[in-house]
Design brief:
single chain; alpha+beta; Trypsin Inhibitor V, Chain A; 3 domains; 4-stranded mixed β-sheet; 3-stranded mixed β-sheet; 4 helices; elongated
Length: 184
């Protein structure tokens, strides 16, 4: 039997037709299984968790069959209560599937601590931007007799003298004692 006769024979055409029908039935069954197993068309709406405590956020997500995943805390934001949600991904109002992870970022309990660097014997003009770049605020400025005018002699926080290497919360107010240019 030649190839041309075989390709045009009824047996070969029946086999081709049966394989096409089997492929269509198999595709149909796979699509139906996918619709059932992936909950096609069923979504949950992500609630707005911003400003809520971690316990309330977890309850709201559990009610909607969503999973909470806490990310690292961000920089302290004084506009939100401590340990409350300040960011979430995906955002509120998004449509997601059941059991989707919702990533939340919490507000830490306070500003992180920053190491105070040595500013003694530097001028006020140098010290002020350095302190501000580290996140501190310059507070009260007092003067003592010292030949170096506007030279930093001491640093204090809430009345206590601070030394280089001490750690203070970011945004702390540091008072400076400067020289007034007079001999002691």
């Amino acid at each position: 039997m030649s190839i041309i006769k075989f390709l045009t024979s009824k047996v070969f055409l029946k086999q081709i037709l049966l394989s096409i029908v089997a492929l269509i039935v198999l595709c149909f069954l796979i699509l139906k299984w996918l619709n059932a197993s992936t909950n096609h068309g069923e979504f949950e709406t992500v609630p707005d968790l911003t400003g809520k405590s971690i316990n309330i956020a977890e309850l709201e997500l559990n009610e909607k069959n969503l999973v909470m995943q806490i990310q690292d805390s961000a920089n302290f934001n004084p506009d939100y209560p401590k340990f409350s949600v300040i960011e979430q991904e995906p955002p509120a109002g998004s449509k997601v599937k059941e059991d989707r992870k919702i990533y939340i970022t919490l507000n830490p309990s306070g500003y992180r601590k920053v190491e105070v660097i040595n500013l003694k014997e530097q001028t006020f003009r140098q010290a002020k931007p350095t302190l501000e770049a580290l996140g501190f605020k310059v507070g009260e400025i007092t003067y003592e007799d010292n030949i170096g005018k506007d030279l930093v002699l001491k640093m204090a926080h809430k009345g206590k003298t601070i030394q280089p290497g001490d750690k203070l919360p970011k945004t702390s107010v540091i008072d400076l004692v400067l020289g007034n240019g007079n001999r002691p």
